[in-house]
Amino acid sequence: MTADPLFLTTAIEAVVRAGELQLARVGRAMHVNKKGAIDLVTEVDVEVERMFRALVADRFPAHQVLAEEMGGSASVPPGPCWVFDPIDGTTNFAHGLPIFCASLALEIDGVAQVAAIYDPTREELFTAERGGGAFLNGRPIHVSAADTLIDAMLVTGFPYDVHQRVDEIVGLFGDFVGCARAVRRLGSAALDLCYVAAGRLDGFWESGLKPWDIAGGSLVVAEAGGRVTAMDGAPFSSRSTQILATNGRLHQAMLDVIHRFHRRQTAVDRRQSHS
Q1: C-alpha to C-alpha distance for 216 and 144, rounded to whole angstroms
Q2: In this predicted model, what pLDDT tens digit does every residue of 21-46 receive, in sequence order?
Q3: pTM of the model
């Protein structure tokens, strides 16, 4: 079934307007609060989300919204639900580092049908419709052809509870560093996913995520010909908190690295518990 054209039009309008609000404030004085030890929220996050909620309420009053700052249904609601991150890469944004975006997906019964992600500093708009392909500024994009990890540039992110999980997070990072051409850490999961979709990067993994981090980007990767699962290979859900997204060719190799790491960690934990 073809999606209502107004869905994608609205998604594009929302993220572009979000980008305009972001650019007007980045690098300038702003009020920043802490949601956690290293989890920031700026007044711009809230301003952008209010703009978006008003837009949806006006055009689709029966639709639900799940967004980072004002919440929504924690479980998948029936019917249409807009999943929105007003600023993905808030820490970068708050520091004036120009790697951030607005990320949006329209899910229907928990399955993303439309996605739009806009990076205002590069004027790059990534879009996708289920079954319709993925695009950057209107031109089709496709995942890379890299088929070995030694030829791959990977990307990951660190969760906000990294201080409590340093050994796990840095340990797995180290395992990938040991077998890939390069590993990057940019600070925006949505852009990480879009870069995999565009063939700039070859694979992305991360845990400790929220639906608004990955709902849009996961559809862009899939529509660009990539593969998206949970980090254990299970079917992907935006509510699963973790993701593995690749060009498809590298998917099993990355799963193997993750599985070996967790087996080793389990063995270490068992030895420590018996010592």
Answers
A1: 19
A2: 999 888 665 566 655 554 456 788 88
A3: 0.93
